[in-house]
């Protein structure tokens, strides 16, 4: 395929009065040569497409970027935008401290990187490299690292391996063990009702159910505790919201998700501290088997002390558990019961993971 100039075509008319000047035409030809050279150079391809889109270098022959991509390179706009996102993610990583030593090696790896929050990409790539253990890095390892760190950018990201949804119901035995350990008191909210395990473990608590249009991220009110298994794809938004509306937060998540810099910055910025990590056994399938430690973490407003690491041993657990052999050092010794629901009902809206 050559790089001769294209004349305006039916259905892809140029925008009148916006012909390219000589420098722009040279830039367009240079970008097109890079793209035609092949997708193996996906970073250069993506950045070249970005320049064409941002500077509207397609305007002389095509009114839209979509029409230009389809006729000139025989791919749809979505593919062009995906290449741009992947290349931008890699280029941004190159500019960050240590990022140039942790770069994806191909487009599949770059695609997984682009699905990660920008501020957590270095940490995700560092963990992926550690998981590789000296062997070649893979897209699967990058995806797993993003899931482990709760760094997925979008609810449409690939959160659960091998298909599945971002809705993982907590078993009753696990919800009961967590509630018995932390003993939340006062006004308590379960913002992601899911299968209802945490709601059953905390009689009288308020709860929200996304399937009924109740959105935690739009909820109004104040609670003493927020206790849930949050949707990992919206983990950061749910944590920020919980720290806005409550003084104590208990979230069930992978252990490593709490120790990345971006997460710690969010916690400190909200005036909270991490009080305890309570490691629990990973439930059996269909719970996702990540091969990583699972824990309920307790955050408290104003906490400036150290972090306790406690553990519910597998042999201590029972499917009919009402209390565990482990006892938290911090929360008040009060029964695991909640105050009546807040009369100010939360606004409708999002948030289902699996209470």
Question: How would you describe this protein?
Answer:
By secondary structure, the chain is α/β, with parallel strands linked by helices. The chain has three domains: 95 residues, no CATH class; 50 residues, no CATH class; 145 residues, Rossmann fold. Helix content is 35%, strand content 12%. The protein is built from eleven helices and seven strands. It has a seven-stranded mixed sheet, with helices on both faces. Helix 10 links the parallel strand 3 and strand 4. Helix 2 packs across helix 4 and helix 6 crosses helix 7. It is elongated. The N terminus is likely disordered.
Chain-wise SSE layout:
Elements (H helix, E strand, L loop, with lengths): L21 H16 L4 H14 L9 H9 L3 H19 L11 H8 L6 H12 L6 H10 L23 H11 L5 E3 L6 H5 L4 E2 L15 E6 L6 H11 E9 L6 H9 L2 E9 L13 E8 L6 E4 L44
Parallel strand pairs: 1-2, 1-3, 3-4, 5-7
Antiparallel strand pairs: 4-6, 5-6
Order of helices and strands: HHHHHHHHEHEEHEHEEE
Tally of domains: 3
- Ends apart, CA distance between termini: 56 Å
Mean pLDDT over the full residue set:
78
Number of H/I helices: 11
Shape annotation: elongated
Instruction: Give the CATH architecture of the largest domain.
Output: 3-Layer(aba) Sandwich
Largest sheet: 7 strands, mixed
Kindly estimate the percentage of residues that lie in beta strands according to DSSP.
5-15%
Order of adjacent strands in the largest pleated sheet:
2-1-3-4-6-5-7
What is the number of E strands? 7
Determine the fraction of residues in helical runs and give it as a percent range: 25-40%
Structural class: alpha/beta
Question: Which CATH C-level class of the largest domain is it?
Answer: Alpha Beta
CA radius of gyration: 25 Å
Write down the CATH topology of the largest domain: Rossmann fold
Low-confidence sequence ranges: 1-12, 154-165, 319-352
